Amino acid sequence: MKKLLFLLFCTGLGLPVAGQRWQIDPDGGIVWRPGNDTPHRDHLEMTGEQISTVLRWVVDDRGAFRVERSLIFPLLRVRPNDTHASLMCRVATDIPSLLAVNTSASGFNASALQFERVEKIVIDGTVRVFSQWSFNAVGAGYEEVEHPAPVLAMERTIFPSPTQPALCERYLIRNIGSQTLEISIPEFSQIVTTPSERGITGGYVIRAELLDAGIRILQPGDSTVVDALFRACRVGETLPPADVGAELRSRREFVSAISDKLVLETPDPVVDTEFRFAKIRAAESIIKTRGGYMHAPGGECYYAAIWANDQAEYVNPFFPMLGYDIGNRSALNAFRHFARFMNAEYRPIPSSIIAEGDDIWNGAGNRGDAAMIAYGAARYALARGERNEAEELWPLVEWCLEYCRRKLTPEGVVASDTDELEGRFPAGKANLCTSTLYYDALRSAVYLGQELGCPRETLRVYKRQTSELAEAIECHFGATVAGYETYRYFDGCTKLRSWICMPLIAGLQNRSEGTVRALLGKELMTENGLLTEQGSSTFWDRSTLYALRGIYIAGQADRATEFLSHYARRRLLGDHVPYPIEAWPEGSQRHLAAESGLFCRVITEGLFGIRPTGFRSFDLTPSMPSGWNRMALRHIRAFENNFDLVIEKQPDGFLRVTLAISGRNPRAFRLRQGASLRIKLP
Questions:
Q1: Cα–Cα dist 594/297, whole Å
Q2: pLDDT averaged over every residue in the chain
Q3: Pairing relation of β-strands 617-620 and 610-614?
Q4: DSSP result, 42-68
Q5: How far apart are CA 263 and CA 256, in angstroms?
Q6: 105 vs 559: CA distance, rounded Å
Q7: Residue 113: closest CA among 173, 57, 61, 68
Q8: Are strands 65-77 and 86-91 parallel, antiparallel or unpaired?
Q9: Is the whole-model pTM more than 0.70?
Q10: Which residues, 6 or more positions from 150, have their beta carbon under 8 angstroms from its beta carbon?
Q11: Is the pLDDT of residue 12 over 80?
């Protein structure tokens, strides 16, 4: 096992392995240098407060780069104003083809740029494409040359504005030849005005444009910058002055700020780098709507809205760990929106609140949404450590717990119409996922209630309900499936499902060994992660990432780390990069943002085993794999503190845990492998 882990770690240093196209760039991104591995195409999403873009790009068999930009403007709503009602368009304008080069000492004999050869592509929170260009001179007497020598080097940088409805592109052009060149930049704009009857607030203007037209003289070695913008606004509105340089600085400042928070250090640089990328994707995808900050799943579908699974359950409990203020504000805002729908009759809270908070979606019925919300809200409130927020969220937690209690079947598990897959796969009348989320929510509610000074009888009831539910989950769902001592997903289910990992997440260990073997067995495991159901071809990263976390929590660190290393290499350095994805075949592996939050929680809650137990306390159960001697998480911003955790393996097999709180002397603890430690912060 140690030899296998060593080989996996070596691949992260740039040694070739099967399926590895990209390498880690020393500056923190990833880089691909095209060679004999073209053509190659991929897509990735990037998001700001008023825009999201999916770049569909290709390096063709001649080495040239092409890109189609999907532009999504979540605050420009179209009819019908439903879940998918963001203004969207695709633009394939080839900016370099608009430029011309003149080498004549007299007259104007401009030639188009040709014969591009991409040298490398770097993804680092922006997309940067480095290439060289040639051209054939214009005029009588000039011969066409099939592969003329390159005369220009170009660096494209593509990124969303952090705050404006704009996709920005910067083209840095450098003369690498021996002649003086004139670069001609035309006055150029593409404008589309949408019909007024199709927009919620009338027509919209989508505008693509080049800035600062004119002629630039480049001596050998000189460079110049050409900027392009893709923007949208309402008819009659005036777009603000454009400053692509300022937008680029803001984007880089955001990426740097997120990179410097919650820093992971392990012997595996690929896992560390994928963690950094996942933080960026999880944090960037927050839309500033009329209804407050709303975390967006993305994928050209889901914006200016929130869901009980993606936001309340998946990503919101992560934001306090990251300490990203806008992320915390979006989390609290999401719970406030769900709290609007509490009612005395205990009718279901909607699965999704859409259209900037103006409407709801509840098309799948009761998916176990109350369990999702209670689970996420209680964990968020504890890790956030803000008493005022916790007091505001406590009625929502109580309501959701009571809703689940009222849905208990005669067998003592929670009934729901479906689960978060919304009928894509059968879920019976009561599924394992909903009941284990309810169980975990009850556990957190006891800790939260203690902090808030709730009546002892209330907490005794929650403790009793927790014990009863654990027994009911074992009795109703515990089963032998496909030869494994694990769980059936619902009554009558005879196939393994990836969501059998959920009891591991909640700390239910009765069937942990059989469940881990089932998750890693041939029936579910593929090179892309776990199949949703045994015998199918569908995989969703969300259940794969839950399973990874659960295998760590079950104390199977070596198995989990082998799985984690493979997964991180596939997502970061493979053919579709650089973030966790939603699913396949549905959505063509879109980079939905909450899945990146789930990857981060594999580290915080799985590898390091952090479980909130109070506003200033947590249980720490680190799972150090046998091939590692040290790991650290730095600048953890949860529990109203800024602290580091360093875990080091000692010669006698024990772990040394060093807690370093900002402004205080470090404290050290000695911990047996697999044991837990209650950490209390000031």
A1: 6
A2: 94
A3: antiparallel
A4: EEEEEE-SS-EEEEEEEE-TTS-EEEE
A5: 11
A6: 68
A7: 173
A8: antiparallel
A9: yes
A10: 115, 117, 132, 133, 134, 176, 177
A11: no
Neighbours of 66 (CB within 10 A): 13
Q: Which residues contact 460 (CB under 8 A, 6 or more apart)?
A: none
Distance, CA of 283 to CA of 303 (rounded, Å): 14
Neighbours of 374 (CB within 10 A): 30
* Count of CA atoms in the C-beta half-sphere (13 A) of 355: 14
Tokens 């205990």 correspond to what residue? 346
| CA atoms of 168 and 172, how far apart (whole Å) | 13
Specify the pairing of strand 30-32 against strand 23-24: antiparallel
What element of type H or E holds 132? strand 127-134
Spatial separation of the C-alpha atoms in residues 643 and 261, rounded to whole Å: 11
Residue 137 has a pLDDT of 67
Taking residue 103's Cβ as centre, other Cβ atoms within 10 Å add up to 16
Alpha-carbon distances of 551 from 330, 375, 469, rounded to whole Å: 30, 20, 22
Q: Using alpha carbons, select from 300, 260, 294 the residue that is nearest to residue 280.
A: 260
Structure-token pair, residue 455: 């009546």
Nearest to 289 by CA among 308, 302, 279: 302
Residue 525's φ and ψ, nearest 5 degrees, are -80, 135
More confident residue, 154 or 239: 154
Q: Name residue, tokens 């949208």.
A: 232
Q: Which residues are CB-neighbours of 265 under 8 A, at least 6 positions away?
A: 272, 630, 631, 632, 633, 634
600/603 Cα distance (integer angstroms): 5
DSSP-derived pairing of the beta strands 189-193 and 214-218:
unpaired
* Torsion sign across C-alpha atoms 545, 548, 552, 554: positive
Cβ neighbours for 243, distance < 8 A, ≥ 6 positions apart:
none
**What are the helix (H) ranges across 41-160?**
none
Report angle CA 392, 615, 677 to the nearest 5 degrees.
150
217: how many CB neighbours lie within 10 A of its CB? 12
pLDDT value, residue 135: 81
Tally the residues of the chain: 682
Closest CA to 637 of 262, 253, 330, 316: 262
| Distances 263 to 266, 325, 580, 603 between C-alpha atoms, Å | 10, 17, 18, 11
**Residue 242's pLDDT band (cuts 50, 70, 90):** confident
- Whole-angstrom Cα distance, residue 23 to residue 647? 28
Q: Which of 14-18, 463-467, 662-666 has the lowest mean pLDDT?
A: 14-18
- CB neighbour list of residue 656: distance below 8 Å, 6 or more residues apart: 647, 648, 649, 650, 668, 669, 670, 671
∠ CA 203-206-211 to the nearest 5 degrees? 145
Which amino acid would we find at residue 183?
Answer: I
Question: 491-497: long-range contacts (C-beta < 8 A, 24 or more apart)?
Answer: 491/428, 491/429, 491/430, 492/428, 493/426, 493/428, 495/533, 495/534, 495/535, 496/521, 496/523, 496/524, 496/533, 496/534, 497/425, 497/432, 497/532, 497/533, 497/534
**pLDDT tens figures, 274-312:** 999 999 999 999 999 999 999 999 999 999 999 999 999
d(CA 159, CA 598): 24
Neighbours of 455 (CB within 10 A): 9
Distance in angstroms (rounded) separating the CA atoms of residues 590 and 605: 25
Query: What's the Rg (C-alpha) of the chain?
Result: 27
Q: Are 110 and 184 in contact (CB under 8 A)?
A: yes
The pLDDT, as a whole number, for residue 1 is: 36
